[in-house]
TrEMBL record:
It is a multi-pass membrane protein. It catalyses: nitrate + a quinol = a quinone + nitrite + H2O. It comes from Paraburkholderia piptadeniae. One of its GO terms (cellular component) is plasma membrane. GO terms for molecular function: electron transfer activity; heme binding; metal ion binding; nitrate reductase (quinone) activity. Keywords: Cell membrane, Electron transport, Heme, Iron, Membrane, Metal-binding, Nitrate assimilation, Oxidoreductase, Transmembrane, Transmembrane helix, Transport. It is an enzyme of class 1 (oxidoreductase). The lineage of its organism: Bacteria, Pseudomonadati, Pseudomonadota, Betaproteobacteria, Burkholderiales. This is nitrate reductase (quinone). The gene is narI. NCBIfam families: narI (TIGR00351).
């Protein structure tokens, strides 16, 4: 195998995951005041409402869909749905969510670049991460025609899932991706790069979103009332 190919699909995933996890932990421990989304809603709210809602709806669906679709073993879903139908479902649902997310992110990027006040208050990393996410969405949409052409045997989907499952079980094998079309491979590399940059950007606030879900399922807090010994009639009050 090409050493570059072997690095990006055999070594680079672990490098990105290590930085993603350790970097997030270190930033939370040392720079908690930077652990926020840096909202610019006060400067201009109209376009933000549409852009943010569309972006978050689309990106959450894509994140969940990619995680379940790639990491679910074929043997688990085969009794219920064929690989071909699963790929067609992924094309339709993922394509719809991708378009929704693309429109929302385009609105957010246009808002941040076109408004002078927002551009002046934006960090370079804010703009850079939006551009990288926008390019990643473009690559994801480009893969749709290739996936549709391959729907007859779902070969590409099975190869990508096998590679991802080998990565998370520490059995890396990059040889299967050699025959995969270039948009898929570039989409994977840029996706892993986003995980690499995650701890150094405003994306860390995603962890807070997961924490808020856990907060909903917290146990009830028990509050006990404290009885005060009030003075009886005719007695002087004592200081409590």
């Amino acid at each position: 195998m090409n050493p570059v190919h072997n690095f990006f699909f055999g070594v680079y995933p672990y490098l990105c995951l290590a930085v993603f996890l350790l970097g997030s932990l270190i930033r939370f421990d040392r720079d908690q005041y930077t652990w926020k989304s840096d909202s610019s809603q006060l400067l201009r709210a109209g376009q933000l409402r549409w852009g943010s809602n569309l972006f978050h709806i689309g990106i959450l669906f894509l994140l969940f869909g990619h995680t379940v679709g790639l990491l679910t073993p074929h043997a688990l879903y085969e009794p219920f749905i064929s690989a071909q139908h699963k790929q067609l479902l992924a094309i339709v649902s993922g394509g719809t969510a991708g378009l929704i997310c693309f429109v929302g992110l385009t609105l957010l990027l246009h808002r941040r670049l076109s408004d002078p006040r927002i551009r002046l208050t934006s960090r370079r990393t804010d703009i850079a991460i939006l551009v990288i996410l926008w390019l990643q969405l473009c690559l994801g949409l480009i893969t749709l025609p290739f996936s549709f052409a391959d729907r007859a045997d779902a070969h590409t989907m099975l190869v990508l899932a096998d590679w991802a499952q080998r990565i998370v079980t520490f059995r890396p094998d990059a040889s299967g991706l050699l025959g995969v079309e270039w948009p898929f491979r570039l989409h994977i590399v840029l996706g892993m790069t986003i995980f690499l940059l995650f701890p150094f950007s405003r994306l860390v606030h995603v962890w807070s979103g997961f924490a808020s879900v856990a907060y909903v399922f917290r146990p009830y807090q028990l509050v006990r009332s404290r009885r005060l010994n009030l003075p009886s009639h005719g007695q002087s009050a004592r200081k409590l």
